């Protein structure tokens, strides 16, 4: 059962309903419901969900590829893209055909992989390439790109960092 977080879900749905590319960062302390919020939000939407693992870049790429290909085909596969960039390009092509959410959970595990990927700048540069996808990345650095974000540490949504809390 999912209780609360109506304001956060409303904010996510508002971005989802826009007619442009949106990039959302969800951050907060451990064990406050970030993953539950993401899962509740994507429940009835076309979404690719990928959880980064405390592993290596190769394993994360294989898992990311599996998430993408299973979304596309509906069947488990052992196939893999040759790079994160190739995987993201494929996701962007999919998003040209339908509104699509790419949810990357536990992004720091992906970012600190030994062969450090450049997913965040690639997503940030996607604005001109696609209008229909939204990325909900959990636990990203909030100052990494100019984007909307939700702080799950409190019940306050911080969609505008300059607005007073609770506004």
Q: Can you characterise this structure?
A:
With 167 residues, the chain is α/β, with parallel strands linked by helices. It has one domain: P-loop containing nucleotide triphosphate hydrolases (Rossmann fold, 3-Layer(aba) Sandwich), CATH 3.40.50. The chain contains 6 helices and 5 strands; from the N terminus they run αβαβααβααββ. The chain has helices at 6-17, 34-42, 57-73, 84-97, 107-111, 119-124, and strands at residues 22-27, 47-51, 100-105, 133-138, 148-151. A 5-stranded parallel beta sheet has the order 2-3-4-1-5, sandwiched between helices. The longest helix has 17 residues, at 57-73. It starts with 5 loop residues before the first helix and ends in a 16-residue tail after the last strand. Residues 139-147 and 154-167 have low confidence and may be disordered.
Short description:
Helices cover 38% and strands 16% of the residues. The protein is α/β, with parallel strands linked by helices.
């Amino acid at each position: 059962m999912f209780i609360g977080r109506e304001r956060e879900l409303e904010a996510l749905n508002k971005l989802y309903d826009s007619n442009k590319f949106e990039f959302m960062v969800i951050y907060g302390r451990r064990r406050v419901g970030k993953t539950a919020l993401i899962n509740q939000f994507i429940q009835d939407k076309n979404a690719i969900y990928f959880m980064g693992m405390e592993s290596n870049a190769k394993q994360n790429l294989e898992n990311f590829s599996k998430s993408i290909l299973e979304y596309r085909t509906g069947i488990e596969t052992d196939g893999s893209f040759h790079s994160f960039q190739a995987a993201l390009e494929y996701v962007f092509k999919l998003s040209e055909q339908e509104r699509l959410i790419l949810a990357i959970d536990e992004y720091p595990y992906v970012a600190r992989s030994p062969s450090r990927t450049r997913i965040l700048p690639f997503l940030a540069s996607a604005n001109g390439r696609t209008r229909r996808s939204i990325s909900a990345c959990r636990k990203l650095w909030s100052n990494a790109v100019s984007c909307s974000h939700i702080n799950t540490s409190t019940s306050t949504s911080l969609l505008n960092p300059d607005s007073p809390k609770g506004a």
